[in-house]
Amino acid sequence: MATLLISLAALAVSIISLVWQFITWLRNGPVIRVKTYYSIPVVAGQVGNSQYLSVSATNRGRAPATITSWGLLLPDDRAVVTNSAPLPGVEPLPFRLDPYAESSWYIAAEAVDQICTEGGFTHSQIRPYVIVAGQGRRVGKRLH
Asked: Whole-prediction pTM value?
């Protein structure tokens, strides 16, 4: 009976170790997550009067990644590539995104509204994306 319990304990530890190794393997390279936020910039202590859509890329992996471009993916699979609004702290592209780091780029909310009006669709049909060198396009969830 004791040998059976020891064998079961060893099996459980082996399975836990195998799962842990698999999770570690998944996180070995860069793991890029793309999110959006609506933001109003504060520059030199002054709150701005314009609203922006922030497209943020977070590297949750263990290796750096290079972000080469970003934009919005429209419902018909067209991509709107854009340059970031010239706000303080916006990193120029291409940008090296280190492990566990985040960076954001911005587009004016009015520009997003114009894209929706011209295309005849709603904000909830648009998805943000970034292009990662060597990995291709990483797409985030639909806008709210």
From this structure: 0.80
